[in-house]
Design a protein that fits this description.
The complex is a heterodimer of chains A (330) and B (1074).
Chain A lengths: L25 H9 L4 H33 L1 H6 L17 H26 L24 H6 L5 H22 L15 H24 L27 H4 L5 H27 L4 H4 L2 H27 L13
Helix pairs in contact in A: 6-11, 9-11
Chain B lengths: L10 H4 L3 H25 L3 H31 L2 H58 L5 H13 L2 E5 L5 E5 L1 H44 L4 H13 L1 E2 L4 E2 L6 E3 L4 E3 L16 H7 L9 H4 L5 H6 L2 H4 L2 H4 L9 H4 L27 H4 L15 E2 L17 E2 L4 H11 L14 H28 L3 H31 L10 H4 L2 H9 L1 H4 L14 H17 L15 H10 L7 E4 L2 E4 L9 H4 L2 H9 L13 H12 L17 H14 L37 H6 L5 H10 L28 H13 L15 H15 L43 H4 L2 H9 L28 H14 L16 H14 L10 H4 L10 H4 L2 H9 L1 H4 L9 E3 L2 E3 L5 E6 L15 H4 L11 E3 L15 H17 L7
Antiparallel strand pairs in B: 1-2, 3-4, 5-6, 7-8, 9-10, 11-12, 12-13, 13-14
Chain lengths: 330, 1074
């Protein structure tokens, strides 16, 4: 009596069988990678690794040179080309023309050729005409904003869309003013700028690039998490109930919530800045900084740390918001 | 220690980058070259297609040319052609005689006019200058100027005339003007005469051209030469673009661009080049790659109505008209294009048009029948390879229109019971509108009544009275239309309000559970396929309980005596039941599947009710056949013997349990039973399904593929078409894999299974696929004129009541009933059995007076007295039944038949001249002479039973005089295969039954063609204008019957007038019915 006879479900119509979403679907992963939209991200990943390696190789060589020069003050007086490769008999400086421009010219040619080939083989990623009654799922921002879109999962739009981007831009602009380390101008070095490089790498690689990758390849329909290769099933349902922190502690009154959340946030700031202070106070930079500079550094460091902490709270403990106020939620 | 080592060179300063730069530059050049290739060839595949098309086309034309030459040669030797040529030559010869002098005269006049104009030139110029001067001059200076002007006007000039003898005249200005006017007039007159003289020759030439055109079946060899030259030059398309150009159609009004012809360059070529022609004409045995790309459009007729220059291609075919970068993109097959090409797909059945016709739907919104012939198609065998006949030629076969079938299925299967579709089953909506308007009018009248009571002003009172009376009139109109609509509104299934009186209670449950096993052809779909068997049984029991308890007892169904089943069997076949019903007679299935298969009706029916129902059906489209009570009893008795092998059913329990009925109501609403059946308490329930008017453009994301989505995507079947087809094939399929939790199993997909075959699925999905929210502006859509609209409206009614079960409406279609044994071949007496079949309705719009037709449709018995029989054709066994048409349906039918024959609307009766006594005598003599009453009924039942032609006493009411006149001359031309003999050879030649012939001589057109030969189709479109002009005839037959001597006139018209004016009134004594 059921709607399909055994004969009708036969092999000639396999699509009438239920196909469970694959746990690893190589073709879908390839489709995702090869999407004209996502190709730049894959390229970025490759280039990033290459340039990291390249920069650190140079930095290591330069650090060796610096150590050598520090050990041999005589040599340092006569030959102080600050970067590798060097030889005592070589010129102390290398002029831009023709040595730099020659290389830039080569790079320009290669990039131009690459862009031409790219434009021949990959068409502009146009999709359906916009339909006001039908939102695409998943609907994603341009690839370079996917990190921000990912942050929206953890904070309300006001924080994730306005405050945090402001801190990113403001922080980048503030760097020259709070950087009190005079070393490392004009050459790659790791030893002389460990703090600056580590902080930047954390901010850029972890908080930006990693989130872009996550947003591109691991966020599917409904902005749900999918392992790379897992079939994007827009009917997927997951059990996930997030609660505000105050609910976990059984606080219900409006003022109570306000005060509790505020105290927790303040507490976090106190602990984070205290810990940072304990680490940083031994650094050579610390005595050179004015109070204003140090205060700014503290603000940016604490805010930067807040993001992964909140992500951790959400992913590990299903905390929706820590501090719920009528104006914003953190 | 460093000094001892050789100093290495600084790699930054000394390293030469020449090689890398050289290589990189090479790569750059290569990438530029790649971009160039991509630009000129990679993204322009049409260039290759165009080159191939040129080759293919040249080959084809080379083959075509000798073929056409051969055909032309055959035509030149054809007798008909030679006759036409002779006619033209004669006309030309005549023209040659008369034309030269006329030409000379016109030339002479032209010379004279030129001479006059030349003489006028100087004074004219002078006078205009003087006139200007006069207008601006001071008053004092005017007389002098006027004087000068008079002088100029008075000055005479010599003019040399040629026409009417050479001479020279001295003319002044006024005379010149007069001469110019008269000469011009004379010349114009002569030119008009010349045009009139040349007309016969020109017309004759046109006839020759038309003849050649018709028999050439393709282009003239000379035109083939032109096409060859064009193709050789590499010019494509109607605008002659050169190869490598984009061929595009641009519709400026709404910026529609179609570049399809860039590849399909042959689509509009003036030849008929189908894929098999291409393969035939190409050297070598291998079929041409993509031959179909180069073919001409298969239906030139269709392109005449939908000119691509106006409509483009993609308006009908879909796809991406602008794109030329790849086949995939141009056909709109890429992922994000919302309008993929409507095309043939593997599942399509061979002899149907399938989704090719989806494009028609968006504009032909309310058409039920497309008026065109689908193009032929190559027949394929099981393996999908083309079939070839013994001569090696491909076998082509005609295709059915899926549009027509899909539209009809949507209506006849009752899809609209659950799914709204614009334009189908509009009655409930119209009823609602009428109800609302009536309420508003009532309110208004009440308000006006109050105002009337308040006002003192008599004028105001009078105004209010008028307004009230006009509102009341409108309300009455609405009430009338409302009654009409209630009658029109027919659900697909039978009325269930009388189920209690109608059926065997034990039969209900098995039927609900599996209708197909009782009656495989039933329209009732199979429900409960998505629930467990246990639940199905429960649901069906509850539904049955509700239906049983909510049906009326029908106390008026009285017990009936048993009838004679043997006689009933004969009557069932004779009376025409088989036009709609099928029944198993022995091992043979008889009849048409329009209505229920009655092979096992004896198992379910209640005899008493059945008799009453046959006698007087009161719901649905089943008509009243005006059977006598005894006939009804006999037929019912026979039907009660129609039973299957295992006729018994287990007793149905619980039909009277009210608790079950209460649950049944919920279930009936859940399954939407009231969409197709009248059920008490659910008369006004809405539709339960989704609206399908724009289903084809619903985003795919909104189609519920359920758990099968990934499978469909993987198989490349994530399309509307696949969805529609699978849904129709297995309506529950998209619930597969879902886990349901409702213990009552009400959360399953509800759509029942209609058990459609592949043809039907393809047809329905064709219509659904085309049901899109069109981008085409309203002005481009089909906006039928009155006539075409009348035809479409009529088809809805014709198909609703299955008129085509008995009657032939289109010449090419044969009703099912006609092919029954009793109407084929000859009977024992050698008479054609086809005389006894229902009449053909081809040409009925031309034949009948619409007023009579409407009356006939209201009451086919044509008499209040005739109760159990036919009126007009009382000699037929088969009955024209009385349908429960609404007034609007009758109007639609009458207009439909008129429109089919292009009759003017409204019909104005011709005023006929009354017959003089002499003419009456004459007419009676002819009437007797040809013995009309030998076949025609006269309204006397005993006598008429042996007749086989309609009662002529109705002629004056029923027929149009124009038709009668034409019919008398050549009945066979109007209705091929009719029994009516051709008594009138033509207007002046009548064959009498005694062997004599009356011959008249037409004094006006002695040499004219006597017999009208332009029949065939024209008869139907005939307007009769050349038949009403009377011609003087003189009888020269010998011996001339005394009573016919001295009559001068057209006998055919005489007889027409006789039948229309005199016959019924005086000739036949009115027969009283018994």
């Amino acid at each position: 009596m059921f709607f399909l006879n055994a004969t009708e479900t036969a092999t000639d119509k396999p699509y009438l069988e239920v196909h469970p979403p694959a746990s690893f679907d190589g073709s879908q992963l390839w489709e995702l990678i090869a999407l004209p939209d996502n190709v730049p991200i894959v390229l970025m990943l490759i280039l990033l690794i290459f340039y990291l390696w390249y920069a650190f190789r140079q930095a290591r060589a330069n650090d060796k040179l610096i150590a050598q020069l520090e050990a041999d003050p005589e040599l340092a007086k006569t030959h102080h080309r600050k970067f590798h490769p060097w030889h005592p008999s070589w010129d102390k400086t290398v002029s831009v023309w023709p040595h730099l421009l020659k290389r830039e010219f080569l790079a320009a040619i290669i990039v131009t050729a690459f862009l031409i080939v790219w434009s021949v083989f990959l068409n502009a990623p146009l999709e359906d005409p916009a339909n006001p009654t039908l939102t695409m799922n998943p609907s994603k921002a341009p690839w370079y904003f996917l990190g921000l879109q990912e942050i929206l999962v953890y904070f309300d739009p006001w924080i994730a869309g306005v405050v945090l981007p402001f801190f990113i831009v403001g922080g980048l602009m503030a760097i020259p003013y709070i950087d009190v380390n005079p070393l490392g101008n004009g050459y790659y070095t790791w030893k002389q700028r460990r703090f600056a490089i580590s902080v930047f790498m954390f901010g850029f690689l972890v908080l930006w690039v990693a989130l872009v990758i996550l947003g591109t390849f691991m966020r599917g329909p409904g902005w749900m998490f999918f392992y790379p290769g897992e079939t994007w099933d827009h009917l997927k349902v997951v059990y996930e109930t997030n609660r505000d922190l105050h609910e976990m502690f059984g606080i219900t009154s409006t003022n109570g919530k306000l005060v509790f959340g505020g105290l927790v946030c303040l507490g976090f700031c106190a602990v984070a800045s205290g810990a940072f202070h304990a680490l940083f106070r031994r650094s050579k930079m610390y005595p050179r900084m004015s109070l204003l500079q140090y205060a700014h550094l503290q603000i940016f460091m604490v805010t930067m740390l807040a993001l992964p902490v909140k992500m951790l709270l959400r992913l590990a403990f299903n905390v929706k918001y820590v501090w719920v106020t009528p104006w914003f939620n953190i | 220690m460093a000094e001892k080592q050789p100093v290495p060179k600084d790699p930054i300063q000394t390293r030469s980058l020449s090689l890398p730069i050289f290589i990189a530059t090479g790569i750059l050049m290569a990438s530029v070259a790649l971009a160039g290739y991509d630009e000129f060839y990679g993204r322009r595949p049409y260039k290759t297609f165009q080159k191939n098309f040129q080759t293919v086309y040249l080959n084809y034309l080379e083959v075509l040319k000798p073929e056409q030459e051969e055909r032309l040669k055959a035509i030149y030797e054809d007798a008909d052609y030679l006759a036409l040529v002779e006619e033209r030559n004669a006309a030309q010869a005549k023209l040659q005689e008369e034309l030269p002098p006329l030409n000379d005269e016109i030339d002479a006049l032209a010379l004279d006019i030129a001479a006059v104009q030349k003489a006028q030139k100087d004074p004219k110029a002078q006078l205009s200058a003087l006139r200007y001067k006069l207008e601006v001059a001071h008053e004092d200076a005017r007389p002098a100027i006027e004087e000068t002007m008079a002088e100029v006007k008075a000055r005479t000039q010599p003019v040399a005339f040629v026409h009417g003898g050479e001479r020279e005249e001295q003319l002044d200005y006024g005379q010149l003007e007069a001469a110019f006017a008269s000469l011009s007039k004379e010349k114009a007159g002569l030119e008009k005469r010349r045009a009139n003289l040349s007309k016969p020759a020109g017309d004759a030439q046109k006839r020759i051209d038309a003849f050649v055109d018709k028999h050439l079946q393709g282009p003239h060899p000379a035109n083939v030469d032109k096409l060859l030259a064009k193709a050789n030059e590499g010019l494509l398309g109607s605008e002659g673009k050169s190869i490598n150009d984009i061929l595009q159609i641009h519709i400026g009004e709404f910026d529609w661009v179609d570049r399809c012809e860039s590849c399909h360059a042959g689509a509009r070529e003036p030849v008929d080049m189908r894929p098999w022609d291409i393969n035939r004409s190409t050297p070598g045995d291998e079929p041409v790659d993509h031959a179909v790309v180069f073919a001409t459009h298969p239906s030139k007729d269709l392109l005449k109505i939908h000119d691509p220059a106006t409509f483009g291609c993609s308006m009908c075919h879909n796809g991406n008209g602008r794109s030329v970068t790849s086949v995939e993109y141009a056909h709109g097959k890429n992922k994000h294009w919302l309008f993929p090409l409507f095309e043939r797909h593997p599942g399509m059945v061979d002899d149907e048009m399938g989704s090719f016709e989806s494009g028609c739907v968006q504009c032909h919104l309310n058409d039920i029948k497309l008026d065109y012939r689908p193009s032929d198609h190559v027949a394929t065998d099981d393996k999908g390879e083309a079939v070839v006949d013994e001569n090696g030629a491909l076998v082509t076969k005609s295709r059915k229109s899926s549009f027509n079938e899909g539209r009809w299925l949507f209506y006849s299967k009752g899809c609209w019971g659950c799914h709204r579709y614009e334009g189908v089953d509009t009655q409930p909506e119209e009823l609602q509108r009428i109800k609302n308007e009536t309420l508003a009018i009532d309110d208004n009248i009440e308000r006006l009544g109050i105002n009337r009571g308040i006002t003192e002003d008599p004028a105001e009172k009078a105004r209010i009275d008028m307004e009230i009376s006009s509102l009341t009139t409108r309300r009455d109109e609405l009430a009338y239309r409302r009654g009409d609509l209630e009658r029109e509104r027919q659900k697909v299934g039978p009325n269930l309000k009388n189920v209690r009186a109608k059926v065997n209670p034990d039969w209900i449950l098995p039927w609900l559970l599996d209708p197909a096993s009782f009656r495989p052809t039933t329209k009732m779909p199979t429900f409960f396929q998505n629930v467990s068997e246990e639940t199905a049984r429960q649901h069906a029991t509850k539904i049955a309980a509700y239906l049983w308890q909510n049906a009326s007892d029908r106390p008026d169904v009285t017990a009936q005596a048993k009838g004679d089943a043997t006689r009933g069997a004969a009557l069932f076949k004779e009376r025409g039941c088989l036009a709609c019903h099928t029944v198993m007679d022995g091992n043979e299935r008889l009849g048409d599947g329009f209505a229920a298969d009655l092979s096992r009706v004896g198992e379910k029916a209640n005899y008493d009710f059945l008799v009453r129902w046959i006698q007087e059906p009161d719901s649905g489209v089943m008509p009243n056949l005006r059977l006598s009570p005894q006939d009804s009893r006999d037929i019912a008795s026979w039907l009660m013997t129609r039973k299957g092998e295992n006729a018994g059913y287990p007793a149905a329990p619980n039909l009277d349990d009210p608790a079950l009925a209460a649950e049944g109501a919920t279930l009936i609403r859940h399954y939407g039973c009231a969409g197709c059946h009248e059920i008490k308490g659910m008369e006004n329930d809405g539709r339960i399904g989704t609206e399908l008017t724009f289903e084809g453009s619903k985003p795919k994301e909104r189609l519920d593929f359920g758990r099968l989505e990934h499978g469909f995507k993987k198989a490349g079947k994530y399309t509307h078409q696949a969805f529609f087809e699978e849904k129709l094939r297995y309506p529950g399929v998209f619930g597969r894999g879902k886990v349901y939790e409702d213990p009552k199993e009400l959360d399953r997909l509800k759509m029942p299974n209609f058990r459609l075959d592949e043809h039907e699925i393809s047809a329905l999905s064709t219509v659904l696929l085309g049901s899109i929210e069109s981008q085409i502006p309203q002005t481009f859509r089909y906006n039928p004129d009155e006539r075409r609209k009348a035809i479409q409206d009529g088809w809805w009614v014709v198909r609703k009541y299955n008129c085509i079960g008995c009657h032939q409406v289109e010449a090419e279609e044969i009703p099912k009933l006609w092919s029954l044994d009793q109407y084929v071949g000859n009977d024992d007496q050698g008479a054609k059995k086809s005389d006894r079949r229902p009449p053909s309705l081809v040409g009925i719009g031309f034949r009948t007076n619409p007023k009579w037709l409407a009356e006939f449709l209201r009451n086919p018995a044509q008499s209040r007295d005739v109760v159990y029989g036919n009126g007009l054709r009382s000699y037929l066994d088969v009955r024209m039944p009385t349908f429960r048409f609404s007034e609007q349906e009758i109007q639609k039918l009458v207009r439909f038949f008129g429109a089919l024959d292009s009759q003017a609307e409204p019909y104005v009766e011709t005023l006929l001249e009354p017959l003089s006594d002499a003419e009456v005598t004459m007419a009676r003599a002819i009437f007797k002479g040809v013995d009309c009453n030998k076949c025609h009924a006269i309204g006397n039942p005993q006598r008429d039973a042996k007749m086989n032609a309609p009662d002529l006493t109705w002629a004056h009411l029923k027929l149009k005089p124009d038709w009668t006149a034409r019919w008398l001359v050549d009945p066979g031309a109007i209705l091929p295969g009719t029994n009516m003999p051709q008594n009138f050879v033509n207007e002046y030649e009548i064959k009498l039954k005694d062997g004599r012939t009356i011959i008249g001589v037409d004094l006006n057109i002695r040499k004219g063609k006597g017999r009208i030969t332009d029949h065939a189709k024209e008869t139907i479109r005939f307007n009769g204008s050349d038949l009403v002009e009377s011609r003087v005839l003189r009888l020269i037959v010998s011996p001339i019957p005394a009573e016919l001597q001295g009559y001068e006139g057209d006998h055919r018209l005489l007889m027409m007038r006789y039948l229309h004016e005199t016959y019924d009134k005086s000739e036949v004594p009115k027969v009283t019915n018994n």
